[in-house]
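Before a computer can learn anything about folding, someone has to put a protein's shape into writing. The three-dimensional part falls to structure tokens, numbers that each stand for a local backbone shape. The protein below has been through that process, and both of its lines are reproduced in full.
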Amino acid sequence: MTVHKFYALVKAVCENGSWERSLFEVKRMGVSDYAFAVELANRIGWNMVEADFEFASILEPEGCFVLHDGSKRIGVATSVCYGNLGWLGNLAVEENSRRHGAGSLLLRHALDYLRGKGVQTVGLFSYMWLTRYYAQFGFEADVEFAVMHGKPSKPKPSVKVNQVSLEHASSLARFDEAFYHAYRQKLLQAILSRENSFIYACCKDEGILGYVGAKVFGNSTEVGPLVCRLEHANVAFSLLKAVFSRITGEAFVYVPKKEVALIKLLTRLGLRESFSVVRMFLGTRVSETCIYTAESLERG
């Protein structure tokens, strides 16, 4: 396995006020790291499974990292590149290694990786209380997202939608790029290639009006991305209803709080806001010109 190594001697202040030097090493995440990544993430309350990190690694094999302190794994981070736009997610460090420079080192390593891929703008989702931390690296707050969660009812769509096949990924990606302003074909292909995951779209004579993806992980489904023309809110509603009519278990949807009509619909269908996050950008902000929900908190 190819290993990306980044060595740094880091000065850190111990709890007793003395100085210690630690050797941190960043390596590429491998299959054997998934269990550690899940255990660390779920101690923070992220409700993740190994399939989450497997999906991230399939999407960006060189861009998922594990931070080591000697022989001990102490942190993880994932990233993805969509051409000029990159995204950071799953940045987590063991609690007793925080404030020792570990998180900053891991973040800078991921940023260096994305810049090396030609990325000009990097996005991430942050908890409210961490926005000042990311601001130290140049990230600026954009808009607030509600994390909607619950077991939805099974409504019938009012507009006809169809399931998308893998062969249509490129045309769907071109539609997506026109509104999201980044080329996410590899993300759409990964969703369509994954077992128990799917995409619905609505097409008329004028072309694609909107689409929505869904990834099933055990008894939970991440619903998104949703991209729909602004003038076709009824299509956006029907796309979400089509997903809910198919899935079992709980659903997670990541909605900009400005999408008031979507939030009202999701509430009527049984979802509630669990918490909120702030989207932040390093570089030129990306503003989608459509009805939109995020694919995940890890990939925008």
Notes: The two ends are 28 Å apart (CA to CA). The chain has two domains: 7-119, 147-293. The chain has a mean pLDDT of 91.
